[in-house]
Design a protein that fits this description.
By secondary structure, this protein is of the alpha+beta class. It is 40% helix and 21% strand. It contains 9 helices and 9 strands.
Length: 227
């Protein structure tokens, strides 16, 4: 299938992002973020878990395979970190107006209460992952920071975050590399700064998790950073 590029404007916050612009077809993909797609005009056609939907809005929960098949009108696409904001929060933020705007959705999301991790050890582990992202992320170092054994660490990540440690690290590397590029870094510098082996590894990950090519998408966005 033809790879889409992201075109338009992006509002980027620490735990959510809002993309407004033209959308094309993507390959089937699945990523860790919750995603809400809203058409600002004609309905779009998307595949979710192998089922085809033609709609003006569609919520895609974390890790569910999906693809955009056709999107004739500009779209608002909202992404949110699942351990901070649930799908219901996205729907509430977008449903407060007849014609939602990126600024309005951003303000509504900023006002939403954040979910808090019940286990403080898990938060310590995530903080350690982020501190190590520019280089090797040792599972032993992450477990040590959280005062857990390796087996306890894996069980905690799988049970409470829905991902094994290695996959969660990859997701956070990708998120960091995207931010670097949006702030002006080259593909290579962003990949290395986020701990990828090289730009090719970053590009493959981007295509696998978002269904688009990094070199065709990230440079074309007008970015607004939100606190």
């Amino acid at each position: 299938m033809q790879q889409a590029s992201w075109q338009g404007s992006l509002w980027l916050a620490p735990d959510f992002a809002i993309l407004h612009g033209a959308a094309g077809a993507t390959d089937s993909h699945a990523h860790y973020a919750h995603q809400l797609m809203l058409s600002t005009g004609a309905p779009f056609t998307a595949q979710l878990d192998g089922v085809i939907h033609t709609a003006r809005h569609l919520l895609v929960d974390s890790l569910r395979p999906h693809a955009i098949m056709a999107a004739p009108a500009p779209m608002l696409t909202i992404y949110a970190e699942p351990q901070r904001l649930g799908g219901a929060a996205l729907l509430a933020a977008a449903g407060g107006a007849d014609a939602p705007t990126p600024d309005g959705i951003a303000a509504a999301l900023q006002a939403q209460p954040r979910q808090v991790l019940a286990d403080a050890r898990l938060q310590r582990a995530l903080d350690q992952v982020d501190a190590l992202l520019s280089g090797k992320v040792s599972a032993a170092a992450v477990a040590g920071a959280a005062h857990l054994s390796l087996s306890q660490l894996e069980r905690l990540f799988s049970a409470q975050l829905g991902l094994p440690v290695r996959r969660l690290v990859l997701w956070r590397r990708l998120r960091l590399a995207i931010r670097f590029i949006l702030l002006g870094s080259t593909l290579t510098d962003a990949a290395h700064g986020a701990g990828f082996a090289d730009a090719a590894h970053f590009s493959r990950t981007m295509r696998s998790l978002f269904g688009v090519r990094a070199d065709r998408s990230l440079r074309q966005l007008k970015v607004t950073l939100l606190d």
